[in-house]
Amino acid sequence: MKEIQHRSDCPIAYSLDYLGDKWVLLILRDLIFTNKSSYGDFLNSDERIATNILADRLKLLEEHGFIRSTVSPEKKNKFIYSLTEKGIDLIPVIVELMIWGSKYDSYEAKEIVKKLEKDKEGTIKQLREKLLGQTGTNNPQ
Fold first, then answer.
1. How far are the Cα atoms of 11, 23, 41, 137 from residue 141, in angstroms, in the given order?
2. InterPro entries, per this entry (predicted)?
3. Which residues contact 9 (CB under 8 A, 6 or more apart)?
């Protein structure tokens, strides 16, 4: 697993120590905005993450409390990943990256971007409530 070594007291540097990796951000994106929740689901993302990198980033996210894994009720050898409250707290950050990227890319804006443009706070609240419901926690604290 990628070792995290904090190089300074700067909050941005601290955040980048965990979130400065594109694969981490794409896994978080998939957990927030899609129904992807398993190793196989993440492997099938358009970006084509390598198996060793995926395993490493899932372990990193879990060990540092951004996600949790549970055994699938259908298949005992399959893990289902979900965001913890710490991971859910990243929704506004991921949303801002998505909005910024959609402003400068040449692709047609996705439906979620259109929703965010109309009502960013309401959409973030809906995403947060949906994901908190998946964690079994209704208390946003």
1. 21, 27, 29, 9
2. HTH_HxlR (IPR002577), WH-like_DNA-bd_sf (IPR036388), WH_DNA-bd_sf (IPR036390)
3. none
Task: Summarize pLDDT for 103-140 with one digit per residue, the tens.
Answer: 888 777 688 888 998 999 999 999 999 999 886 655 44
Q: What angle do CA 116, 122, 125 make, to 5 degrees?
A: 110
Q: Does the predicted model carry a pTM greater than 0.90?
A: no
The answer for residues whose C-beta is within 8 angstroms of residue 5's C-beta and 6 or more apart is 17
For 67, phi and psi rounded to 5 degrees?
A: -135, 165
65: containing domain:
11-135
For residue 3, tell me if it sits in a domain: no
Instruction: Tally the domains of the chain.
Output: 1
| Residue 73's CATH number | 1.10.10.10
Distance between CA atoms of residues 37 and 82, nearest Å: 7
Contact call for residues 26 and 47 (beta carbons, < 8 A): yes
Kind plus residue range of the DSSP H or E element containing 50: none
pLDDT score at 106 = 72
Spatial separation of the C-alpha atoms in residues 16 and 31, rounded to whole Å: 19
